[in-house]
Design a protein that fits this description.
Length: 412
Amino acid sequence: MKQHRHAGANRATAATLGRSIRLAVVVLAAGLAGVAAIAGAVSLRMARRVVTPAIREQDTRIVDLDTAAQTITLTRTPDTRLPGRYGLATVGTESYVKLGTVLAERASTVTRKLLTEIGEQARLEPAATFSGWYFDRPEQLHVPFTDVLIGSPLGPCPAWLFAAPDAQAPAADTWVIQVHGRGTTRAETLRAVPLFHRLGMPTLVVSYRNDGEAPRSRTGTYGLGATEWRDVDAAVGYALRHGAKRVVLMGWSMGGALVLQLSLNSVHAPAIAGLILESPVTDWRLVLEYQAKLLHLPTPVSGMALRALQSNFADLFAGTDAPISFDELDASARADELRHPILILHSDDDGFVPSGGSHRLASERPDLVTLEVFTEARHTKLWNYDEARWSRAITAWLGEQQLLGEPSPAGS
């Protein structure tokens, strides 16, 4: 009887243990499913964020405005403490303010000189956007320009055409086409226009689909260069019909991805004399992985976001017009297909687009790629940080490509 009671107790214990294990498995499975669901939701949100245009997010705060001393104090960030001259998009009596040198730096604030004169009655909201644009309207350049429309596959895209100062100059038949980046407009590229004007080159500053100025696609989302390059290709055609014999494409950030795609795919490729890439995206996978780390997201999240954007159901998952092929957008993977000289200007502390892609492309094609490395200029702020070095690098490269005309005879 005693052994029977022990056997019954053991069976009861085993049954209880079995139920506990099954319950634990169910709870664990439910937990894992919940984690997977959360990761999936986060990855889809990340995918949508990448392709959704978002113009100039507010990233700093105005702490103090001293109109008597013409200074402004901002929250201290890796960008606001940079030397050089910058812009500040604001809300209030001033919509855009030019900033000069850093006058004082404290633990949490930076005080800079105002280059835009602000009156005593000025009132600015605290939230603002620190920018490398510097110029936000073409009139500020004091260079003659014309508003033109480029007939793209989606409709007319507005552009600014800055003619060469001398139509007979050697460089006047080489046009520069400027392409802005993600979340910005063509005003981003205006700071480069004076250099090309001094070099005698016409400059066409273009817009492209879904940037807030050009026509909207069906979904209104970015193709990350996979679709937008066709609008810039239309601008190349415009230039060739209006006197250009060759073109130099200059792309900023995502604009770099656009012009790389154009150089690889365009029927106008023979007319392309070279590419200038400023803080460019050469591989979107590197960018998404980097951004996920900045947001402290698990590594699988960026991978899931990439798969969502490449899926046949990308329109459903991410709201894109079509699946995005990241293999086709990877310039290093397609390095053997490149055939145009390339100048890359990139800072190793970029903070948004890691410079590793630029270094990799330069190592893949040293015969074509010249890499000018900055170390503390951040993203698309190389001109602002050191305009003289930036200008020298571009001028020297254009000269090496024989795009500035024949050198003057010795002694002339």
